[in-house]
Amino acid sequence: MNKQYTSNDDVENFDLKKFHESNSSFFDFDTSSMEKGEDAKFNVYSHQWTQISNQIKTKYDYICQGCGWRPNTDDKKKFIHTHHQNGDKTNNSEDNLKVLCIECHANIDGYHARIKSMNGYQEFLKLKNISN
């Protein structure tokens, strides 16, 4: 059976919010601003991102604000991420940043679930299970 993918009804009844909710995990970028009807803008890290991220992680002593995990050696600090809570990578205000372990970061939402396929995710899960 051939499916007609586009019709006038499809276009007239298109709901961007429903589309985003159903399909956001298929995109390799955050589509939430589109859902809100905002103009598209570049959502890229600032040139100072590494420094900003390191400062916030240091302030919170590299402790995950989600589950409380903390690295016991410097080489395990790679499992601590800095998350933009509102999804805007240009908003580096402290109240928008959250220190999370790689697991908590991956479990934030469907968009961040892609972290589970990154190098280090499985390594972290094994490490965390051993230390518990």
Jot down its keywords:
two-stranded antiparallel ribbon; mainly alpha; 132 residues; 8% strand; 2 domains; 33% helix
Commentary on this structure:
This protein has two domains: 1-41, no CATH class; 46-131, no CATH class. Helices cover 33% and strands 8% of the residues. The chain has six helices and two strands; from the N terminus they run ααααββαα. Strands 1-2 form a two-stranded antiparallel ribbon. The model has no long low-confidence stretch (mean pLDDT 84).
Topology summary:
Elements (H helix, E strand, L loop, with lengths): L7 H5 L3 H8 L8 H4 L13 H11 L20 E5 L12 E5 H5 L14 H11 L1
Short description:
This protein has 132 residues and is mostly helical. It has helices spanning 8-12, 16-23, 32-35, 49-59, 102-106, 121-131; strands at 80-84, 97-101.
Net shape: globular
Per DSSP, the total helix count is: 6
State mean pLDDT (0 to 100 scale).
Answer: 84
Total DSSP E strands: 2
Tell me the distance between the termini.
53 Å
Considering DSSP H and I runs of 4 or more, what fraction of the residues is helical?
A: 25-40%
* Alpha carbon gyration radius: 18 Å
- Largest pleated sheet: 2 strands, antiparallel
Number of folding domains?
2
Secondary-structure-based class equals mainly alpha
Strand neighbour order, sheet with most strands: 1-2
How much strand content do the residues show?
5-15%
Question: Which regions are unreliable across 5 or more consecutive residues at pLDDT < 50?
Answer: none
Order of SSEs: HHHHEEHH
